[in-house]
Automatic annotation (TrEMBL), chain A:
Organism from which the protein derives: Chelatococcus reniformis
Subcellular locations according to the entry: Cell membrane
Keywords tagged on the record: Cell membrane, Membrane, Transmembrane, Transmembrane helix
Name assigned to this protein: Branched-chain amino acid ABC transporter permease
Claim: Iron is one of the keywords in the record: no
Record's GO cellular component terms: plasma membrane
Domain of life the protein comes from: Bacteria
Membrane topology, record value: Multi-pass membrane protein
Transmembrane segments: 5-23, 29-50, 62-81, 87-106, 113-132, 152-173, 203-223, 235-265, 277-300
GO molecular function terms attached to this record: branched-chain amino acid transmembrane transporter activity
TrEMBL record, chain B:
Listed InterPro entries: AAA+_ATPase, ABC_AA/LPS_Transport, ABC_transporter-like_ATP-bd, BCA_ABC_TP_C, P-loop_NTPase
Gene Ontology annotations for the cellular component aspect, listed alphabetically: plasma membrane
Organism: Chelatococcus reniformis
PANTHER family, per the entry: AMINO ACID ABC TRANSPORTER ATP-BINDING PROTEIN, CONSERVED COMPONENT OF ABC TRANSPORTER FOR NATURAL AMINO ACIDS-RELATED
GO molecular function: ATP binding; ATP hydrolysis activity; L-isoleucine transmembrane transporter activity; L-phenylalanine transmembrane transporter activity; L-valine transmembrane transporter activity
CDD domains with a match to the protein in the record: ABC_Mj1267_LivG_branched (cd03219)
GO biological process terms, semicolon-separated: D-alanine transmembrane transport; L-alanine transport; L-isoleucine import across plasma membrane; L-valine import across plasma membrane
Name by which UniProt lists this protein: ABC transporter ATP-binding protein
Residue ranges occupied by any ABC transporter domain in the UniProt entry: 20-254
Keywords: ATP-binding, Nucleotide-binding, Transport
Length: 308, 262
C-alpha cells in the first residue's frame, strides 16, 4: 500500500490535534486522560507489530508492560536511581522476557505461544503477590518520581515517544522485514521453502514488540507514580487486543487510533456509572460483529478513497 | 583420460562428487515404513523423474531430502555436504529448493511479493533483494502481467508457476518439483513442460521431478527412478522404465504369488 499525501496530512493533523487538545481544553483532567490514551496507543502499536503482522496472537502483552513498569518501580524504590534510567532498562528487561518466553514457544506451531504468553503474565502477577516483601504485594511499589514535573510537558513527551514508536514500527512493517512477517502469517512451511528462518523473525519481532511495550510500561509507572500487580493482568492484555481489533489489525496506526478512541470512550462513559461496562461492551460487540476488519483503518481508507 | 571420463568429470564437478547423493534414507511413521532405505545419486545438470503410484513414498522422500521431515537413518549430501539434520530453510540456503504438490502461496500478498519473500533468503539477499529481480523471475515463468494481482485471484495453472518462481528466487542448484503438472489440463501441461526444459537448459539447473503419471514427463527427463511401497524398484531411461516388469506390476497389478508375499 502506497503512502499518500492525504495519509501524511491526516497523521500530522491527528498529532497536532492531540498535542493542542489539553491547551485548548485547558484542563488538567484532560491532560491526564490523554496521557493514558497515548500510553495505550504505544501498547497497541507494539502488540500489532508482532501479532498483527505474523498472526501469532499474544494474549499476555501485559507481561512486557508489567516487566517494564516494575523495572521502573524497583529502580526508584530499591536503587533510588535517576528516574530516566527507567526507560532504557525497562526496554532491556522486557526484551529479556521476550526471549525467555518466545524461544521455547515460538519454535512450535499451534496455540503454544498464545497460551504461554497468557500464563507467563498470570504467573508474574502471582509472583508479585508471593514475593510481597520485595514487590509490595497488592499495594505494589510507591514513591516513583515523575520524569518531568509538569503534567502537560510529560504528556507531550509521552506523545513524542508514541509518535516515534508508531513511525519506527510502521517503517519496519513496510520494509522487507514486514514483508517476511506477513509471509509468516501466510504460511510458515512456505517461508521455510523460501529459505527464511521463521523462528528468528518471530522471536526478533516479539523482542521489538516487547521493547516498546516495556517502554510504555515505564512511562505508565512514572505517570501513576506507583506500580501494582494488575498491570500483569489478563484484562490489560485483552483490552489492548480489543483496541487493535477496533483500530484495524496490521496497520499499526489503526490500533494507535483505536487505543485513543477506546480509552476516551471509557472515560466518557464514567458518567453512566454501573451501566458503563454494558455500553462499552455493546459498542465493542457491534463493531466486532459488523466490522470484523476493524473500524478506524478501514473507515479512513474508504473516506479517502484508498484502494487497499 | 578418455572422452567419456572427461565428460563424466565435468558433469560431476571438480571434486568428482555427485551433486546429490542419497544413501540409505529411511523413515517410519508408526507401523508404516514410508521410505525403506532409498539410495541414488544425481549428477549436476541432470533432469530426473521420480515415478510411482500414489502412496509410493515420493513426497515423503522429497520431505526427507528438504528437511521438512527428519529421516530415521541414512544420509543426504549436496555437493558432498551433509544436509541431514539441517532445518528446511538452511537446506534451501545450501541451494536445494522445492515446490509443493498442493500449491502453498502466501495469502494476503501480491504475486510479486510472494516471489520477493524468497529473494530475501540469506543465500541470495545481498544480490537479489529487489523488486527488479523478483520481476525478472516472474518474467521467466510467464507471470509478468500478474505481478500486482493478489494471489487469491490467480488461476490454478498460474499458482503452479508461482510455486516454481518462488523456488527459483532462492537461486537453487537443485530444484525439486513435486507433481508440477498435478491438476492441470492437457493444454497447460505442454507449456509448463517447456518452461521446465528451458530452465534446465538455460539456467543449468539440476531438476528432480515427482510424477505419478509416466506419460507427463517421458519426454522431459533423461532418467527415471521408479518407487513403490517406499522402495526404489527400478532406475533407468524412460524407455527402459516403461518396460520394466516391476514397474508394470506396480501400475497394473500384482500376480497372486507376489501379492501374498507383500
Amino acid at each position: 500500500m502506497k503512502v499518500r499525501a492525504i495519509d501524511i496530512g491526516g497523521a500530522i493533523g491527528a498529532v497536532a490535534l492531540l498535542a493542542l487538545a489539553p491547551v485548548l481544553g485547558n484542563s488538567g483532567y484532560l491532560t491526564g486522560v490523554l496521557t493514558l490514551c497515548v500510553i495505550y496507543a504505544i501498547w497497541a502499536a507494539s502488540w500489532d507489530f508482532m501479532s498483527g503482522l505474523t498472526g501469532r496472537e499474544n494474549f499476555g502483552h501485559a507481561l512486557f508492560i508489567g516487566a517494564g513498569a516494575y523495572t521502573a518501580g524497583f529502580l526508584a524504590t530499591v536503587y533510588f536511581a535517576n528516574p530516566w534510567w527507567s526507560l532504557p532498562l525497562s526496554v532491556v528487561v522486557a526484551m529479556a522476557f521476550a526471549v525467555i518466553v518466545g524461544f521455547p514457544t515460538l519454535r512450535l506451531r499451534g496455540p503454544y505461544f498464545a497460551l504461554a504468553m497468557l500464563s507467563a503474565a498470570a504467573i508474574m502477577q502471582r509472583l508479585m503477590l508471593i514475593f510481597w516483601e520485595q514487590t509490595g504485594g497488592e499495594e505494589g511499589l510507591y514513591g516513583l518520581e515523575p520524569l518531568i514535573n509538569s503534567p502537560l510537558h510529560y504528556y507531550w513527551f509521552v506523545l513524542a515517544v508514541m509518535v516515534v514508536t508508531a513511525a519506527v514500527l510502521m517503517l519496519l512493517a513496510r520494509s522487507h522485514w514486514g514483508l517476511i512477517l506477513r509471509a509468516i502469517k501466510g504460511d510458515e512451511a512456505t517461508c521455510q521453502a523460501a529459505g527464511i528462518n521463521v523462528t528468528f523473525y518471530k522471536i526478533a519481532s516479539l523482542m521489538i514488540s516487547a521493547a516498546f511495550a516495556g517502554l510504555g510500561g515505564a512511562l505508565y509507572a512514572h505517570y501513576q507514580l506507583q506500580v501494582s500487580p494488575p498491570l500483569f493482568s489478563v484484562i490489560t492484555s485483552i483490552t489492548i487486543i480489543i483496541m487493535v481489533y477496533v483500530g484495524g489489525m496490521g496497520s499499526i496506526w489503526g490500533p494507535v487510533l483505536g487505543a485513543i478512541l477506546l480509552t476516551l470512550l471509557t472515560e466518557m462513559l464514567r458518567g453512566f456509572g454501573e451501566y458503563r461496562l454494558w455500553i462499552y461492551t455493546l459498542v465493542l460487540m457491534l463493531i466486532l460483529f459488523f466490522l470484523p476488519g476493524g473500524l478506524v483503518a478501514p473507515l479512513w481508507r474508504r473516506l479517502t478513497g484508498a484502494r487497499s | 583420460m578418455s572422452e567419456t571420463a572427461a565428460v563424466d568429470a565435468q558433469v560431476r564437478g571438480a571434486a568428482g562428487v555427485p551433486l546429490l547423493a542419497v544413501d540409505g534414507v529411511r523413515k517410519r511413521f508408526g507401523g508404516l515404513t514410508a521410505v525403506k532405505g532409498a539410495s541414488f545419486t544425481l549428477a549436476a545438470g541432470e533432469i530426473v523423474g521420480i515415478l510411482g503410484p500414489n502412496g509410493a513414498g515420493k513426497t515423503t522422500l522429497f520431505n526427507l531430502l528438504t528437511g521438512f521431515i527428519a529421516p530415521d537413518a541414512g544420509s543426504v549430501k549436496l555437493d558432498g555436504h551433509e544436509l541431514k539434520g539441517l532445518a528446511p530453510y538452511r537446506i534451501v540456503n545450501r541451494g536445494l529448493a522445492r515446490t509443493f504438490q498442493l500449491t502453498r502461496p502466501f495469502l494476503g500478498m501480491s504475486v510479486l511479493e510472494n516471489v520477493l519473500v524468497a529473494c530475501l533468503a540469506p543465500r541470495v539477499r545481498h544480490r537479489m533483494a529487489s523488486e527488479e529481480h523478483a520481476r525478472r523471475i516472474l518474467d521467466q515463468v510467464g507471470l509478468r502481467e500478474k505481478a500486482a494481482s493478489p494471489v487469491e485471484v490467480l488461476p490454478y495453472g498460474d499458482l503452479r508457476r508461482l510455486e516454481i518462481a518462488r523456488a527459483l528466487a532462492t537461486d537453487p542448484r537443485l530444484l525439486l518439483l513435486d507433481e508440477p503438472f498435478a491438476g492441470l489440463g492437457s493444454s497447460e501441461i505442454e507449456p509448463l513442460a517447456n518452461l521446465i526444459k528451458r530452465l534446465h537448459r538455460e539456467e543449468n539447473l539440476t531438476i528432480l521431478i515427482i510424477e505419478h503419471k509416466l506419460r507427463e514427463f517421458m519426454a522431459l527427463v533423461s532418467r527415471v527412478i521408479a518407487m513403490d511401497f517406499g522402495e526404489i524398484i527400478a532406475v533407468g531411461t524412460p524407455a527402459e522404465i516403461v518396460r520394466h516388469p516391476r514397474v508394470i506390476e506396480a501400475y497394473i497389478g500384482r500376480t497372486e504369488g507376489d501379492g501374498a508375499a507383500a
